[in-house]
Amino acid sequence: MVALLEVDREELIDRLTGRRICDGCGANYHVEFNPPEENGVCDGCGDELIQRDDDDEKTVRERLDVFDENTQPVVDHYDDEGELVRIDGHGTPGEVWKALHAEIEAAT
Ligand SMILES: [Zn+2]
Prior knowledge:
Layout: E1 2-6, H1 9-17, E2 19-22, E3 28-30, E4 49-50, H2 57-80, E5 84-88, H3 93-107
Parallel strand pairs: 1-5
Antiparallel strand pairs: 2-3, 2-4
Helix pairs in contact: 1-2
Bound molecules: zinc ion (ZN).
């Protein structure tokens, strides 16, 4: 079994462009899903939060295009083999894990 976690392109772009990283300690935040107490400031060390150069929207779109190009042949292969299981990747990490876990249980 090969699991494919599927998320809409626009949702992925929201997730990736919203990432912020602490310049001091490297802690990860997200402006929407995991914001710090104070906008732009690390909860842990108080340093400034920055956006990585490759998390800007144009670069994210290019990265996703490259990912799709490289991944589609692999997806097609396992789909042809009947091994591919598509998992809805929207929702919370807990919900996605639950769906994935159910598929693993069903396959073993
Ligand atoms: Zn920090």
